[in-house]
Amino acid sequence: EAAVTQSPRSKVAVTGGKVTLSCHQTNNHDYMYWYRQDTGHGLRLIHYSYVADSTEKGDIPDGYKASRPSQENFSLILELASLSQTAVYFCASSPTGSQNTLYFGAGTRLSVL
Amino acid sequence: GEKVEQHESTLSVREGDSAVINCTYTDTASSYFPWYKQEAGKSLHFVIDIRSNVDRKQSQRLIVLLDKKAKRFSLHITATQPEDSAIYFCAARNNYAQGLTFGLGTRVSVFP
């Protein structure tokens, strides 16, 4: 069974602090994605990666960095967390890009205070 | 870029009836239209998709229709059951973009 694991499951951060969200997949998938979910906005793509050591900007990359040190791991980094970054963050993987099924992790609920 | 509008924000249906969720998209180049389901407190999982080379696809009680002229696609959940209660997201993707563009979601509630 495909598995995408996110950590932490929830986090409270202070404004201006650094936050790192981690994602690990055991699917042997090339593509990994970070989405955020907000009430009224649905899911929006932040960053994605199709190979280790390379990341690409999605639709809303401002204020976020991504890191893909290996095929299995994909991190989302908020260098200076802001109130507007309070949201639920989902990591997903897919074998050959998003014209194939996305497998989502359980999500990380981030509250920035 | 692509925009996907999901027309129903909530839908309440009696068990056994059908639920229909409608989505429209803006990019004529979009060619892949998946649907995802999110149950309460859980993550999203894929339920069904349709590609632009067909106009209808069925998987058990789920039917997806695609009208490319109108840039509209819809999910029909037939013979609804309590376990169909969830938020359903439509999405679209074209061949040159990465990532899916999602609609805002439709909360479907099935009552007895």
Question: What is the structure about, briefly put?
Answer:
The complex is a heterodimer of chains A (113) and B (112). In chain A, 0% of the residues lie in helices and 54% in strands.
The parts of chain B where pLDDT drops under 50 for at least 5 residues are none
What's the SSE pattern of chain B? EEEEEEEEEEE
Tally of alpha and pi helices of chain B: 0
Using DSSP, what is the number of strands of chain B? 11
Largest sheet of chain B: 6 strands, mixed
**Percent range for helical residues of chain B?**
under 10%
Give the overall shape of chain A.
globular
Radius of gyration from the alpha-carbon trace of chain A, in angstroms? 13 Å
What's the mean pLDDT score of chain A? 92
Task: Compute the CA-based radius of gyration of chain B.
Answer: 13 Å
Q: The biggest beta sheet of chain A, please?
A: 7 strands, mixed
Q: What assembly state would you assign to the polypeptide chains in this entry? A: heterodimer
What is the chain-wise order of helices and strands of chain A?
A: EEEEEEEEEEE
Portion in helices of chain A: under 10%
Mean pLDDT of chain B: 94
What ranges of chain A have pLDDT less than 50 throughout 5 or more consecutive residues? none
Q: Using CB atoms under 8 Å apart, which protein chain pair has the greatest interface?
A: A-B, 25 and 23 residues
First and last CA, distance of chain B:
41 Å
Helical segment count of chain A: 0
Indicate the structural class of chain B: mainly beta
β-strand amount of chain B: over 45%
